[in-house]
Amino acid sequence: MSSAERRSQLIEVSRAIFAEKGVEATTVEEIAAAADVSKPVIYEHFGGKEGLYAVVVDREIAALLALITSSLQAGRPRARAEAAAIAFLTYIETRSDGFQILVRDSTVGAQSGSFATLISDVATQVEGIFVEEFRARGFDPKMAPMYSQMLVGMVALTGQWWLDSRWPSRDVVAAHIVNLAWNGLSSLESRPQMASIANKKKK
């Protein structure tokens, strides 16, 4: 194999093992054995397991972002929100190993790590949907980044559940997610308050 071919092979082999066992439970020896190479070859190309894992994660995030970006090219805000949800679920459906890698070693609420990076990067891509819609409805567009995080987090969490159940279909799941988000937006309060606080003020 050429150097580039060997590097690609190691990435694919390690991707499958990371997805099955997680990064902590995977050893360089396992990866080397599965790829039929010696351990020094892995160190030569990636500097070790952590470097190899970082490359795998970066590739998965790039693959998802490419799907999301291509889905947001045109259309009305709701249609683009639906397209973004479908793109995310398509990634989960077609690259389930990669999604497992992204979510296994970094929990949804983590402040750093692959999953937190994933949510942040994808939310940045869909932020424009909310900026446009907030302006049209007279809401503060500075709140749009927070709402894009909410939508992406909802898709990601639902996607984790859907990965196991695989029911209903991808498009139905996407439609229900956007139904909740968009109908919530249609009745959105411009300055929401906690109900408990609002009730105290009325007394």
Plain-language structure description:
The protein is mainly alpha-helical. Helices cover 77% and strands 0% of the residues. The chain has 10 helices and no strands. It has helices spanning 3-21, 28-35, 39-46, 49-71, 77-94, 96-104, 114-137, 144-165, 170-186, 195-202. Helix 5 runs parallel beside helix 8 (144-165), helix 5 (77-94) packs antiparallel against helix 9 and helix 7 (114-137) packs across helix 8.
What would the keywords be for this entry?
203 residues; mainly alpha; 77% helix
Uncertain segments are 107-112
Summarize the amount of helix as a percent range. over 70%
- Span from first to last CA? 77 Å
Q: Beta fraction of the residues?
A: under 5%
Kindly provide the radius of gyration, computed on alpha-carbon positions and rounded to a whole number of angstroms. Answer: 20 Å
Which structural class fits the helix and strand makeup? Answer: mainly alpha
How many β-strand stretches?
A: 0
For the largest beta-sheet, the strand count, sense and barrel status come to: none
Give the overall shape: elongated
The number of helical segments is 10
Mean pLDDT: 87
The succession of helices and strands, N to C, reads HHHHHHHHHH
